[in-house]
Amino acid sequence: MTPSKKTFYHRPKINQSKNPTVRWLFLVLGWLFFALGIIGILLPVMPTAPFILLAAGCWARSSRRFHFWLINHKYFGKFVRDWEDRHAVPLYAKWLASIMLTISTLMLFYRLPADMLWLAWIVAVVGSGVIVYLFRLPNA
Predict the structure, then answer these.
(1) Whole-structure pTM over 0.85, yes or no?
(2) What residues form the membrane-spanning segments (predicted)?
(3) Helix (H, G, I), strand (E, B), or coil: what is residue 89?
(4) Per-domain residue ranges for the chain?
(5) CB 138 within 8 A of CB 86
């Protein structure tokens, strides 16, 4: 007889809005961000993590049920819990985001016409700031 595996569920944080209109708005935004996060899994140019974290933040303010579901999700749960508890990001995610951001920015420099290169430089500066910010966060 094998010992049973205990399942531990994380409880959602309670910071719901008292206004029903605001709760509905956050609920709808949560689903929109979650859908964009799922699309981001399939499309290489679209990020997943920021949209999943935005969905978690919206659901924390609107729906205990959906927030509970997300923080205990098989794939997204640990990532969301790490962010909510310590603002921590896994090291592999930092490197992956940095590499993808760098490749995307380099493609802009290659593809944009010469009179539009100022746009690529703006993206490069903002992207560099994002990379610095990411690596200043604790590792999950």
Answers:
(1) no
(2) 21-43, 91-110, 116-135
(3) strand
(4) 20-86, 91-136
(5) yes
